[in-house]
Amino acid sequence: MLQKLLKLFLLICFVVCSFYILFLNLGKLLDVTSKPHQADIVVCLGGGDYKSRIVKTVEVYKQGFITKNTIILTGYVNSSRDIKQGKVVDKRMTYLQKHLDTSVNVILNKQLKSTAEEVMFVKNYLIEHHLKSALFITEPPHSRRILLLNSLISIKGDDKLAISIVASKYKNWNPTEYYKDKYTKNYVFSEVVKIIYALFAYGFLDKLGLLEWFIKHFDKEAHQAKIDLTKAMNFISS
Questions:
Q1: Which residue, 57, 190, 200, 203, has most beta carbons within 10 Å?
Q2: Does residue 20 form part of some domain?
Q3: CB neighbourhood size of 29 (10 A)
């Protein structure tokens, strides 16, 4: 009996220590950004901290890293308040018009609603235009999910595409101490939940041909579950 209790105690200690080590290293695991380097196009993702994203996009473009003179903007960042005030042109477009000349080829796709859709659109664009590489601009903790989706979502002809992530500035981001700031901690936990969903949706359901059915019937429930799980993780860690 004593031996069984000892084994159980050691198992609990192992599990607790493993989760603690994982917790401490989540920031480093999620941040897979790289320094800007030469690529065919640059992609400024919608959502998130769009101001920092578009600033970094222009910076990368002006530094001469983009060989095909093309910037892709995904999603639509204007709020309902902006629209009521007559500001219907995407704010990122306005920023580009102020800071770049008209020779830049800017492509805006407002219809994209998720990171998965953004990745699919960019991959298709690269293939259709016989291009090979793209730099995605986003916050560091978002980068792991982009690369994960890039590997899970397969499109004919995408095996030679090179996708890299360049970090935009995000508040007080520190991958080794993300948990000390409530904003970065929430971002990290939210990404962990979304990565789990991405693995389930695109690594499992999509392979079985069930993803469209699942989204049609359970999209709202899945969205709420992700919110609830993120809140639970924040509560446990507080």
A1: 57
A2: no
A3: 15
> Is the domain of 61 the same as that of 109?
yes
Measured in whole angstroms, the distance separating CA 17 from the mean position of its chain's CA atoms is 28
Considering the domain boundaries, does residue 9 fall inside one?
A: no
Are residues 158 and 183 located together in one domain of the fold?
no
Q: Are residues 223 and 112 in the same domain?
A: no
Q: 50 has which bridge partners?
A: none
Res 190: pLDDT: 94
**Which runs of consecutive H residues, i.e. helices, occur in 70-201?**
80-84, 91-99, 115-128, 143-152, 182-200
Q: What per-residue confidence (pLDDT) applies to 38?
A: 98
Residue-wise pLDDT for 30-72, tens only, equals: 999 999 999 999 999 998 899 999 999 999 999 999 999 999 9
Q: Which two tokens stand for residue 34?
A: 């790289």
Close Cβ partners of 69 (under 8 Å, ≥ 6 residues apart): 103, 104, 105
- Main-chain phi, psi angles of 171, to 5 degrees: 40, -125
In a domain, 94, yes or no: yes
* DSSP letter for each residue of 166-178: EEPP-TT--TTSG
Q: How far apart are CA 95 and CA 55, in angstroms?
A: 8
Q: Is the dihedral of CA 132, 138, 143, 148 positive or negative?
A: negative
For 84-96, write each residue's pLDDT tens digit. 788 889 999 999 9
22 is written with which tokens? 């994982």
Q: Does residue 72 form part of some domain?
A: yes
Domain count, the chain: 2
Give pLDDT, residue 235: 67
